Amino acid sequence: MAQLIDIIRVVVGTEYFTATVQVAEDAPLMTSEDLEGTTRVYRLLPAIIDHACVGDAGSTFKDCMGDTELAHLLEHVTVELLARTNMVDDVIAGRTWRELAYDRTYSIRFDCIDDVLVAGALSSAVWIITWAFTGGAGAVPDVDATVNGLVELVRGLPTEGMTHDSRPSSLQEDGWYSDPYAGSFEDADDGYEDMADEYADDYVEDGDDLDRGPRMSRKII
């Protein structure tokens, strides 16, 4: 399964966890370019459409999910996975923006609840997006097992004496952590099943995609 989104840099601060991601050349930039893939994500995580989402078509992610950037969808999938761990406070906030107009690189910022937890959730979200937008071949991602794995990952870490070098090697791969360790940071209504028909006329070509600017989202739990 080809990787559609690469995490090329992560900066961990006391308040925010910011990832720079790059969408592959052969991947859609907009969800409207592959509505079957977008629907697969919805069916895995139906509560995603109820996320508050400021700066797009309406007040919830449902209003824009069928025609938004793939990186923005990645943000919301990450936020939903974080919420499902029950290891965070009442509100999880995220923000996605484009680095350069017509470029395929985006920055995604999350509240730094716990940097290892956020890194794990983001990596898992990339895997889910890749599965959904490469035809949904193979085993369907097990969201519950993924969430349980994130919880066990964090619970298994030492609480004292943690340094960058002592992190799990999977989180150090490719130089993700550019800063030293900075410490810790439902069901939706049906009706999105026919999304492909609803947005069939809203196909967006790569060359027509404009920088939509920053947006904010949050999951209230």
Name its key features.
221 residues, alpha+beta, six-stranded antiparallel beta sheet, 29% helix, 18% strand
Write structural notes for this entry:
- The protein is of the alpha+beta class and 221 residues long.
- It has one domain.
- It is 29% helix and 18% strand.
- The protein contains 6 helices and 6 strands; from the N terminus they run E-E-H-E-H-E-E-H-H-H-H-E.
- The protein has a 6-stranded antiparallel β-sheet, with helices on one face.
- Strand 1 and strand 2 form a beta hairpin.
- Helix 2 crosses helix 3 and helix 3 packs antiparallel against helix 4.
- The longest helix is centred in the middle third of the chain and has 18 residues.
- The protein is globular.
- It starts with a strand and ends with a strand.
Summarize the structure.
This protein has 221 residues and is α+β, with helices and mostly antiparallel strands. The protein has helices at 35-44, 70-84, 115-132, 143-155, 169-172, 195-198; strands spanning 5-12, 16-23, 52-54, 91-98, 105-111, 215-220.
